[in-house]
Amino acid sequence: MSFTRLSKRTHNITPAAHAAAKGRYPYQQVVGMLQYLCTTCRPDLSFATKELARYNSCFNHDAWLQARRVATYAMQSAQVGLTFRRDATRSFSVEAFVDADYNGTPEERLSTTGFFCTVAGMPISWASRTQKCCARSVAEAEFVSLSTCTAEVLYLRQFLCELGLNGNTASTVPIRGASHAHSVLTDVGRSAAVQGIIHSDSTAAIANAKLPVGWLNDKLKHIQNSYFFFRQYYQAGWVNFHHIPGLRNPADALTKGFDSLDEFLRKRRLLCLE
């Protein structure tokens, strides 16, 4: 499904146009329906729904046409759904795929983060989000996406450990000082039955993510400190970063639209949708 990003400038999204459309079209209801679908069983709708939701309070006729188009696609593909298959060869681990679309929003010049998390090869969590900061390069946008995805992987990893997949967690160990905290993280990371593996198609972001904790270079020193937290978990062995070609990255479908139908259908299959 191809999707054209909305823009206040090119699509004439003005207060007057919104006032004319507000009482005519159930835009917010349609977007709410799409949000329910994309958070429960249709990750292929995540990017388009995220873009439509940005104009919930200022939509016009053009925005309504886009929302109706996405809703029509959802209804015509109602038979499509997540496919779960048992695969004895897959280890019970958290595996995630992450991607970023650099400077995607026309006005704010903000990038888009998309991640797709699986457990034993089965989809369990995904999202398409607009980044909060304006990235200065593609590598920086991918770096921020890695940080966002790592937070989700750490949550899933801890949740699976609480289900009994791992008997040792950092919360059960009293921490005595910074050096002891690092050793506890390392021990837990090495002994965990649930490992977090994150795939990205950006070699630059992976290289920056694997730098030692506290290491900064001229291209990263301006980024907010909160985006550097995952380096500590990488050094401790909680997560690992692997490169994946963009053609095999399912998160690519969560950051942009596709003009080619064949390309979109191929990405949709990567999202375990059949």
Keywords:
13% strand; globular; Nucleotidyltransferase, domain 5; 5-stranded mixed beta sheet; single chain; 9 helices; alpha/beta; 274 residues
Which helices and strands appear, and what pairs or packs with what?
Layout: H1 15-22, H2 27-40, H3 46-53, H4 61-76, E1 94-101, E2 112-119, E3 122-130, H5 138-165, H6 178-191, E4 196-200, H7 203-209, H8 230-236, E5 239-243, H9 261-270
Parallel strand pairs: 1-4, 4-5
Antiparallel strand pairs: 1-2, 2-3
Helix pairs in contact: 2-3, 2-4, 5-7, 6-8
Percent of residues in helices: 40-55%
**Percent of residues in beta strands:** 5-15%
The named CATH superfamily of the largest domain: Ribonuclease H-like superfamily/Ribonuclease H
Task: Briefly note the structural class of the backbone.
Answer: alpha/beta
H/E topology pattern: HHHHEEEHHEHHEH
Instruction: Outline the low-pLDDT stretches.
Output: 167-173
Write a structural description.
By secondary structure, the protein is of the alpha/beta class. Helix content is 41%, strand content 13%. It has nine helices and five strands, in the order ααααβββααβααβα. The chain has helices at 15-22, 27-40, 46-53, 61-76, 138-165, 178-191, 203-209, 230-236, 261-270, and strands at 94-101, 112-119, 122-130, 196-200, 239-243. It has a five-stranded mixed sheet with strand order 3-2-1-4-5. Helix 2 runs antiparallel to helix 3 (46-53), helix 5 (138-165) crosses helix 7 (203-209) and helix 6 packs across helix 8 (230-236). The radius of gyration is 20 Å and the shape is globular.
